[in-house]
Amino acid sequence: MGQKIKKGTVGLGSKFVTRSKAIKRLDIPIRDFRKLCIYKGVFPRVPPNSLKRGAHKTYYHLKDLKFLEQDKLMDHFRQLNAYRKKMKTAIVGRADQRIKQLKKLRPRLNIDHVVRERYPSFALALGDLDDPLTLLSLIASVPSHRLFKLSPERINIATRLIGMFKAIVSEKRLLRKVFLSAKGVYYQAEINGQPITWVEPYAFSSVLPFDVDYKVILSFTEFYLVLVKFVLFKLFASHGYRFPGLFTPEISYHNTLGSCVLEKNAGSVEQEAEMDPNFAQELQQRGQSPASRGRNSNLFENLVFFLSREVDKKIFEFVIKSNGGRVVWDDDNFDSETYRSAEITHVVMDRPLLDEIIIQGREYIQPQWLCDSANFGIQAPYAEYRPGLQLPPHVSPFVDDKAEGYVPERKRQLLELANEYIEEDIVSESDAEGKEEELEVAPVQRTQPVIAVPDKKKPSTIEKKSHGKFDASAKPEYKVKKVVYSAAEEAIESKKEGSKKEKEQAQLQAMAMNRKRKRMLDHIIKEDKVKADRAAELRRNAKNLKSQK
Predict the structure, then answer these.
(1) Who's near 384: CB < 8 A, 6+ residues apart?
(2) Which of 496, 497, 482 is nearest to 441 (CA)?
């Protein structure tokens, strides 16, 4: 008789352990275990037999635990645990001198090696920069709080890092998209061919809720601070700037409070940062240059914008400078000497325009004009953005119109102004039916014989000749009708044939799928149908609005 196998020691289930067992194996408190997992990028797993073992528990893989055991951070957390015990003993014994000594000997956290381990190349770090910039922008906008351990020093560091990143983006004109939403301001910059998208909250006074786990947020913040520092150092060095930048605490009429001023290194030569060769090859296949600055980098060249008092300086200064423009403002607003300067070409204001402040030769616009112009690479018509007027819709540049199946009317107008609007490749059957009456007959593209089937009520030519008897020598007469297709109809017919072949191929592939993949396919088809119905409804609503006007 062989040795009895204990339950949970072999098979797939044996490779997963619960969180309590993982903490016991590493011999660290749960708060340090959470930090360690966040720093190293280790997250819970779902075991294959989770329903049998308890779905309410959290499981980790054994390989991940072995990966954590061998890291240097384990020594740091063990030293920190011993330090806490010594500090607790000193506090209970009221040994003030011992407490002062222990505060100086507190172990310092160093996660530089973790960042280099998780991001061995600069391209990988750039590709994962969306969440760090979003979280640091949030931390930079909240007030300090003693209970939540949001210290002023940490908020100040996050503010400086965001300021340095925006300074290098605006100086090198790497900003590509900006969208003003209810959540905040969405930005997208392109660095070494990689798009980086992040969100910044508006500058409103915020109240921190108590139902949020700030310990997890601060653990991610500690890691992201180090990651962003690495990225900024590489960016500054590649472009020949001194790191860190110079911060001016005083308010200037052409710069925001505490913003970063870039300084060139003596004898430095600007170099392009390294790029993943596979990603560079992919850009070349798409017909894009890895070092291209984009279509709107010089959009506001030689233009000077005066920002009124009610306009958010940090948002629109960043947009203007990223497109080659200059920005000025003054605390005295329209009563200042700065406003009367002859260099000013545009005035950005968000209040009704008064006759006594108008200066001839200037354009008075609302702030949305800057975002719409930057997104589409054109200077939008000024008449639609005059102060006091109702603004046109602010369309999002992040939406893929081809995937959604609908192009908003405002976006179509701006694309036509930029000479970048292309008719939709896919014409739905409903659109084709609605356009049948409007189609003009063009020169003949192809002819298709159509057999006219004789009506059953009328006797055929065979019946007439045979007088009710079958005549083998008689030949049936067929009427051949030639159908002339115009260019638009030819495109519709070819697309119908192509879609028919694609449907047949998809049906053959679906027949070879298992049940799980078929359910996923049905779910995808259902979502596509909902999306198509929504796009059709939007087109009908737009058509009704046009007819009402």
Answers:
(1) 391, 392
(2) 482
Token digits of residue 150:
């949001």
Under 8 Å between Cβ of 397 and 375: yes
Q: How far is CA 103 from CA 87, 106, 135, 153, 195, in A?
A: 8, 5, 30, 18, 44
- Alpha carbon 363 to chain centroid, angstroms: 32
Is the distance from CB of 137 to CB of 199 less than 8 angstroms?
Answer: yes
Residue-level pLDDT at 473: 57
Backbone CA torsion sign across 429, 432, 434, 436: negative
Phi, psi of 297 (to 5 degrees): -70, -30
What kind and span of H or E run contains 369? helix 368-376
Backbone angles phi, psi at 338, to 5 degrees: -60, -40
Determine the 3-state secondary structure of 59 from DSSP: strand
- Closest among 532, 346, 111, 75 to 540, alpha carbons compared: 532
Q: Return d(Cα 457, Cα 357) in angstroms, integer.
A: 85
Phi, psi of 535, rounded to the nearest 5 degrees: -65, -40
Residue 373 in tokens: 């112009």
Q: What is the DSSP letter of 2?
A: P
pLDDT score at 516: 81
Would you state the torsion angle of the CA atoms of residues 148, 153, 158, 164, taken in this order, to the nearest 10 degrees?
170
Do residues 39 and 73 lie in contact, with contact meaning Cβ atoms separated by under 8 Å?
yes
What is the pLDDT at residue 260?
78
Give pLDDT, residue 251. Answer: 47
Question: How many other β-carbons are positioned within 10 Å of the β-carbon of residue 457?
Answer: 5
User: H helices of 239-327, where?
Assistant: 277-285, 313-322
Q: Residue 481 burial by CB count (10 A; 0-12/13-18/19+): exposed, middle or buried?
A: exposed
Phi-psi region of 94 (alpha: psi -120 to 50; beta: other; left: phi over 0): left
Cα 375 to Cα 296: distance, rounded to the nearest angstrom: 8
**Distance between CA 275 and CA 271 in Å, rounded?**
12
> CB pairs under 8 A, 24+ apart, for 37-41?
37/68, 38/216, 38/219, 38/220, 38/223, 39/73, 39/111, 39/114, 39/219, 39/222, 39/223, 40/67, 40/68, 40/71, 40/73, 40/114, 40/118, 41/118
Q: From residue 461, give the alpha-carbon distance in Å to each of 160, 451, 471, 475.
A: 93, 15, 11, 9
Rg (CA), the chain: 34
Q: How far apart are CA 500 and CA 506, in angstroms?
A: 10
How far is residue 537's CA from residue 404's CA, in Å, rounded to a whole number? 12
Residues of the chain with confidence (pLDDT) below 70: 1, 8, 49-54, 248-259, 266-296, 421-491, 549
